[in-house]
Amino acid sequence: MIKLIRPQQWVKNTFIFLPMIFGGRALMSALDWYSSVIAFFAFSFTASAVYCLNDIMDVEDDRRHAEKCKRPLASGAITIPQAWGIMAVMLACAGVMLFLIPTGRYMASLVIIGYFFMNIAYCIKLKRYAILDVCIVAFGFVLRLLVGGLVTMTPLSKWIVLMTFLLTLFLSLAKRRDDVVRMESTGEAPRHNTSRYNLTFLNEAITITSAVTIVCYVMYTVAPDVGASEKNEYLYLTTVFVILGLLRYIQLTVVDKRSGDPTKLLLSDRFLQAVVLLWIISFVITIYVL
Questions:
Q1: 215, 253 Cβ separation under 8 angstroms
Q2: pTM score, two decimals?
Q3: Closest CA relative to residue 284, chosen from 255, 241, 223, 254
Q4: In contact, 221 and 235? CB cutoff 8 Å
Q5: Phi, psi of 192, deg, nearest 5
Q6: Quick one: which of 55, 136, 231, 247 has the fewest CB in 10 Å?
Q7: Angle formed at CA 109 by CA 104 and CA 115, multiple of 5 degrees
Q8: Closest by alpha carbon to 20, among 155, 189, 165?
Q9: What does the alpha-carbon distance between residue 120 and residue 54 come to, in Å, rounded to a whole number?
């Protein structure tokens, strides 16, 4: 059951905390932390329900996949009726968490419900369409950001919204590149739309999205509204760690061919972990100390 609901993937939902942290309020409001934590678990339980639905819809394809055949449904460790039951429990837990959100509950609930129905459409049909599939995944992270802003009443800069979309689009494209590499080595497409991608297209798309992500981050750090809210002039220096992180990820994708699971990479690659940690430290210092 734990493998089915994928709690290790909940790290993606930490995007909910970004509005509070980027807004310079992380050390100031216990209510903001409480609201963000509750929203985090509400989104996480909803995402786990989506994972259940995805595995139910893809069970036959997963059984033919070299790695996904080990998933609980594909391997037969959990039956499809049991998976539906676990999905219902996850949705019930998400509902309880939403009820506990003290501020912005109504709008945050609508966004999370919208995320769930968007992913129903994605699991049933939309993931078969190349480009659209990665855009939907990236938009899901924008919704996480939006939930974080709603429950903490934090206005979102247009640059952080664009940066979030582009960064997660970059990660999704890198993941699709791993699928293409797998297809070329095994002769079998891991996804229905893998044949609509190739290495040339994905390499260029990854280059474009990573470059524009850096531009958006720089614009965020020097934007007048951001500078006014953060009251510092050194935020742009944290761009160094963003560039290092993107370069490292491109290296893992193109040279080492290890981009199949972004979450697993983040949890296993020491270089990435060090860069993320240094970025967090430098960001916190520039906002709360300088």
A1: no
A2: 0.88
A3: 241
A4: yes
A5: -65, -30
A6: 231
A7: 130
A8: 155
A9: 8
- For residue 253, the one-letter residue type is T
Between CA 4 and CA 72, with CA 75 as vertex, the angle to 5 degrees is 10
10 Å CB burial of residue 21 (0-12, 13-18, 19+) is buried
Tokens representing 249? 């990820």
Residue 203 to residue 165: CA distance in whole angstroms: 18
Which run of H or E residues covers position 247? helix 239-250
Q: Determine contact, residues 192/127, Cβ cutoff 8 Å.
A: yes
Burial of 29 (C-beta count, 10 Å sphere; 0-12/13-18/19+): middle
pLDDT digits (tens, 9 = 90+) for 79-135: 999 999 999 999 999 999 999 999 888 999 999 999 999 999 998 889 889 999 999
CA dihedral 53, 56, 61, 67 (to 10 degrees): 80
Rounded to 5°, angle at Cα 135 from 69 and 5: 35
Both tokens of 88, joined, read 């219902």
Distance CA 174, CA 170 (A): 6
Amino acid letter, residue 220:
Y
